[in-house]
Design goal:
By secondary structure, the protein is α/β, with parallel strands linked by helices. The protein has two domains: 189 residues, Rossmann fold; 131 residues, no CATH class. The chain is built from twelve helices and eleven strands. The strands form two sheets. A six-stranded antiparallel sheet has the order 6-7-9-8-10-11, with helices on both faces. It has a five-stranded parallel sheet with strand order 3-2-1-4-5, with helices on both faces. Helix 4 packs across helix 5.
């Protein structure tokens, strides 16, 4: 049986691409990817809805060098859109070879995203993946050059589609045709498209080039403050973030929180082992500023824990303008 491997995000387009290929009696396997910047939960749920076998690959180790220096530059914020898609296609192509499948396909639609799904971008993505002749775009195939799987008769080109542009009426019609009444929205999911997250990511690149995967994961939570070139404070915004940060604390961190009142908890991280007393005082004063109870008190008692050593310090609240200056 002919087998196709589809890049599967869980959105409507990738779901429809699977259905169009599956309609030809082709065995369809899905593949999706995870990094600290995007997860596979949406794809997993969507794959279950259409009974799609789905492989999830963590590509973080190979992805971060690409993210720091994408050959084709960034799209919105720090999203290396074209290089990201090419890299995913390469990984999918390697998986295709591993399982003995015959071709790759995606849910990309010509012109749906003007910068990343125009003819030039689609061509570059396929070429840079190393599997150019084997990449099929079922939703727009009749508007694109014939691919090897089509010319070899593995796929009936006449049964592929000619969708283009940003409108989604044809996709909606197809969803009804296939009985798909639940699907994810096309936008969102990738943290690299969010300016607030990317500010924190750029700060990490600038100050900690050899950061571990944990440091990338920590970017998802809390307010971040740059205390020095080596030191950063991460402060919870609410109860749920406080709880998540508390679970993230490592022995080498300073765990910092108010003693006698409700308020945020924080983690002070450093990319060298020793800690500077002045930096801890800065962190404590920022914690004090965000404490709601006792906000009219001049001084606050803050606890700092590191390597099971518990220190209590009394600090004044940092003025808001100084807090804003340090916030990333």
């Amino acid at each position: 049986m002919v087998t196709g491997v589809g890049l599967f995000s869980g959105g409507l387009d990738s779901t429809l691409a699977c259905m169009v290929i599956r309609d030809q009696g082709i065995d369809v396997k899905g593949i999706t990817f995870e990094t600290p910047f995007f997860l596979a939960e949406k794809a997993k749920k969507a794959a279950q809805r259409i009974n799609l076998p789905l492989t999830v690959l963590d590509i973080t180790e190979e992805y971060i060098p690409l993210l720091k220096n994408p050959p084709n530059g960034y799209g919105k914020n720090l999203n290396p859109c074209i290089d990201c898609h090419a890299f995913m296609l390469k990984c999918a192509g390697d998986y295709m070879k591993q399982i003995g499948a015959d071709f790759l396909f995606t849910g990309e639609v010509l012109g749906e995203r003007p910068k990343s799904q125009n003819r030039w971008a689609l061509s570059v993505v396929a070429k840079d993946s190393g599997y150019e002749s084997l990449v099929v775009r079922p939703l727009s195939a009749q508007l694109l050059p014939t691919t090897k799987p089509e010319s070899a008769g593995l796929i009936d080109r006449s049964k592929l589609l000619a969708i283009s542009g940003r409108g989604r009426k044809e996709q909606m019609r197809l969803a009804t045709h296939y009985g798909i009444d639940e699907y994810e929205t096309p936008a969102g999911g990738c943290l690299l498209t969010y300016s607030g997250y990317c500010s924190k990511l750029k700060d990490l690149f600038d100050h900690y080039p050899s950061a571990s995967l944990r440091h990338y994961s920590l970017l998802k939570n809390g307010r971040h403050f740059r205390l020095s070139s080596h030191t950063k404070l991460i402060l919870g915004k609410d109860k749920s973030e406080n709880e998540r940060l508390e679970l993230e604390v490592q022995p080498e961190d300073v765990f910092i929180y108010p003693q006698d009142t409700k308020g945020p908890v924080g983690i002070v991280t450093r990319n060298i082992d020793c800690y500077d007393t002045d930096e801890i005082l800065l962190a404590a004063r920022i914690v004090a500023r965000y404490c709601k109870q006792g906000e009219h008190e001049i001084e606050m008692i803050i606890r700092c824990q590191r390597h099971a050593v518990d220190t209590v310090i009394t600090v004044d609240r940092m003025p808001q303008e100084d807090v804003d200056r340090l916030r990333i």
